[in-house]
Every structure is written in structure tokens, then in C-alpha cells.
TrEMBL record:
<feature type="domain" description="Dinitrogenase iron-molybdenum cofactor biosynthesis">
    <location>
        <begin position="9"/>
        <end position="93"/>
    </location>
</feature>
<dbReference type="InterPro" id="IPR036105">
    <property type="entry name" value="DiNase_FeMo-co_biosyn_sf"/>
</dbReference>
<dbReference type="InterPro" id="IPR003731">
    <property type="entry name" value="Di-Nase_FeMo-co_biosynth"/>
</dbReference>
<dbReference type="Pfam" id="PF02579">
    <property type="entry name" value="Nitro_FeMo-Co"/>
</dbReference>
<protein>
    <submittedName>
        <fullName>Putative Fe-Mo cluster-binding NifX family protein</fullName>
    </submittedName>
</protein>
<dbReference type="InterPro" id="IPR033913">
    <property type="entry name" value="MTH1175_dom"/>
</dbReference>
Length: 119
């Protein structure tokens, strides 16, 4: 399983599309076996969900995310967890323990992207 966290360095980003990087964790038997950080290749409508799908991501964790991105992830069978905050790796460990649940925080207006994650 691959879990991606939209991040600002090692911290979970408030808004998926405008994050600095994606921290990607490979998990086997609920244990992280590999982690890497890749830069955000750029925010274009519909691009990032397909990009992460092509990387083999099964779960995406973020502070906030637009409805269009959520729809594409859902179409690709990728689980979406929004409303997360704090350290990226800590959120992955909480998810693996069944303690991290999505709040359903959907960003509706991109001009207010700086407010995402505060819903």
C-alpha cells in the first residue's frame, strides 16, 4: 500500500493542490517500509489525482482539498482523508492505527486556498 501526504516539508499541508511536496510512504503489514518526498509537479485542475494514481498511491491525506480532486480520487479507488494537521508521518501512523478519519473538509473556492484546513 502507498500512502501520500500533501505536505509542507514534513508537515501536512492545509491545501492539497498548493502543497510544497508529497511525502509518500510504502506500507506492508501496517509498518512503514519506505518513505520518500517528491516535489509537487504543479497545480493544474485534474492533474495531481491522476499523477498520484500513476505512482500507485492508495490513500491521500491532506488538510483540505477541492471537490473536483476528491471526485477524481474516488473514481480511481483512492481513499481520501481530509482535515488532517500536524506531522505527515504521524498522520500516516494514526491512519494505520485506525485513529485518523476524514472530516470531509472540502475547499470550495480556490481564491480562499489559504483558509483551507481551517474548516
Amino acid at each position: 500500500m502507498k500512502i501520500a501526504v500533501a505536505s509542507e516539508g514534513k508537515m501536512t499541508a492545509g491545501h492539497f493542490g498548493h502543497c510544497q511536496n508529497f511525502n509518500i510512504y510504502e506500507v506492508e503489514n501496517k509498518e512503514i517500509v519506505k518513505e520518500e518526498s517528491i516535489p509537487n509537479p504543479g497545480h493544474k485542475p485534474g492533474f495531481l489525482p491522476n499523477y498520484l494514481y500513476e505512482l500507485g498511491v492508495n490513500v491521500i491525506i491532506s488538510g483540505g482539498m477541492g471537490g473536483g480532486a476528491i471526485d477524481i480520487f474516488n473514481e480511481r479507488g483512492i481513499e481520501v482523508i481530509v482535515g488532517a494537521a500536524g506531522e505527515a508521518k504521524g498522520n500516516v501512523l494514526s491512519y494505520l492505527d485506525g485513529k485518523l478519519k476524514s472530516t470531509g473538509s472540502v475547499c470550495h473556492e480556490h481564491q480562499h486556498a489559504d483558509e483551507c484546513g481551517k474548516h
